[in-house]
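Q: Hi! Curious about what Sigma-54 dependent transcriptional regulator looks like structurally. Here's the sequence.
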Amino acid sequence: MSEAPLDSTSLLAALVAAASEAHTRRTWVRRVAEVLARALPLARLELGERVEGTGEVEVVGGTPGGAAISTTRRRLHEREIAALGSGQIERSSRRGGDGRSRVVVPLGGAGAAMFVALSLDPGAAPEPSLLAVLGDVLFHLLRGQEVTQRVAELSRRAHAENRELRGQARLGERERSLVARSAAMQEVLRRIDTVARFDTTVLLAGESGTGKELLAQRLHQLSARGHRPLVAINCGALPASLVESALFGHEVGAFTGATRRHLGVFERADRGTLFLDEVGELPLEVQVKLLRALQSQEFERVGGEERVRVDVRVIAATHRELEPMVAAGAFRRDLFFRLCVFPIRVPPLRERLDELPALVAALVADIASRLKLPAPAVSPAALLRLAGHSWPGNVRELGNVLEAALILGGGETLALDAALAVDAPPPSAPIERLDDAVRRCITEALRACAGRIYGPTGAAQALGLKPGTLQSKMRKLGIDREPFVRES
Ligand SMILES: Nc1ncnc2c1ncn2[C@@H]1O[C@H](COP(=O)(O)OP(=O)(O)OP(=O)(O)O)[C@@H](O)[C@H]1O
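A: Let's find out. The predicted structure is below.
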């Protein structure tokens, strides 16, 4: 059933009611078009905004009834340029073959950046005074909508930040202090402490359980952003279809089940730090979006058109070798260089066994206090036993073994034999593929030799191969030596 036509006063009241409930420009255009169509023979409504520094305009346009709302960018028409410059309404009586007239109403006086354009059916002659009032009202409604939107945005971010900081405070209570006694870890700390105060992107590379997340926390705390949120996301823990929304958020209706606007980690980390864990797991199609967001600090939520601006410092971490992934085309080269501004290699536990006693003491004390058990002394024999283990799961695995040993020993001793038997890998533990092992050896040699293949300091000699053999293996495995040359 179509609604009754409106007189000018009711028209303005209905506009205020309709526009004040619209949270996006598309809804605004749809609602305003619906109301205007009740007072004028409106065929189409456009809301345009000049794109600064260009002769272009971004237009959200639609027909009453609202079926087809579109957003486009195009060059400004002459009449639009004239209306924006003078602040006066511009009309063209005939446009195209359909006999429709077009009225451009600037919003905000001479030098305005926005306008609405009405396409009216043949014969329509709205009162100039009505159009002028319309321009005023629409301008103020839009301004009001922008302020409301901004306030809602800020309140959403403040809410998210508050939640983040409360979570962090809870974590902080349980946080383990970082042990770094070995020369290798001292060097890691030196690099962390040096780079912390700059907004530079840091890439932490190291095996699983080596303490990358703990180091990211230290980096954040030492930075000027330390009192702001540190938001972490594990890029490998989500299915590809959800990673983009987890990073950038989504709008209502972006996909089935998206019933509310959701803020992604980029927005939740605004003015703080974003920790991208397992960055090597990101699907290629998301990598390109991440690169753009890192470069411009701007992105669009999934299903949205509005550009969201943030100020985020990024720390990325990976347990996978990214260079071979770049060479094999599984990781974008441009993203790799964007992330690898300040790489820090976190050594595995087997390369820093000299700090094992300190680590064990700290972990035992921490676990005992958490389990409310006494902390037994750790004998030299127990330390020797622990030093003989290979620790593929690094400090995390060491912590698990110590926790099991403490429980099995009833808090009086560390029942290491029993705990290590539990920790022994199952017979079906995955065996590394030969190609992967060869790839790992070659990339390690190339890194150590700064990409050189030939000569006494080259990778071929280090691997005990002829240069030609090495090159053919590299070709077969898709390994490129370039990243290693640049890295040196
Ligand atoms: N140097 C250290 N001192 C004290 N505890 C440590 C240290 N390194 C790691 N840990 C502990 O080991 C566990 C794993 O550490 P963390 O999560 O930081 O490793 P990670 O490298 O980020 O692992 P992953 O790659 O699997 O995410 C945590 O419980 C952490 O507190």
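A: A fun detail: The longest strand covers residues 42-51.
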